[in-house]
């Protein structure tokens, strides 16, 4: 079974839509759980690992080869930064108003763009 090929623009739109839908449900679910921060953080982390392994296995089955993963120092740094962002996100959900946490999450791409070096042509 071959997968349809998407242009880079369509892939970006699909990933943005999926990410937006996932993040829009994140804060209400964390609040509705009425649990403590650390158990929710642990459950969220375990779920992330399981879904990642499931996606990697699906790619292996569909394409017949393992996806390229980021090895070494860069992969460890990316994992640590992702873990830190998850921790600080949940801290903001439990310690601030929902509107503040949503604004901070929504402003992250703009902050990244503003703090990046200019592109020289």
UniProtKB/TrEMBL annotation:
It comes from the Bacteria. The chain crosses the membrane at residues 42-62, 74-94. Keywords: Membrane, Transmembrane, Transmembrane helix. This is EamA-like transporter family protein.
């Amino acid at each position: 079974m071959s997968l349809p090929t998407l242009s880079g623009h369509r892939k970006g739109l699909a990933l943005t839509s999926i990410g937006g839908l996932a993040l829009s449900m994140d804060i209400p679910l964390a609040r509705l759980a009425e649990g403590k921060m650390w158990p929710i953080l642990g459950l969220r982390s375990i779920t992330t690992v399981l879904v990642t392994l499931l996606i990697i296995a699906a790619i292996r089955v569909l394409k017949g080869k393992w996806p390229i993963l980021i090895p070494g120092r860069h992969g460890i740094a990316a994992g640590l930064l992702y873990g830190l962002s998850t921790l600080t996100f949940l801290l903001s959900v439990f310690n601030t108003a929902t509107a503040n946490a949503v604004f901070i999450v929504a402003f992250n791409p703009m902050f990244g763009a503003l703090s990046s070096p200019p592109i020289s042509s």
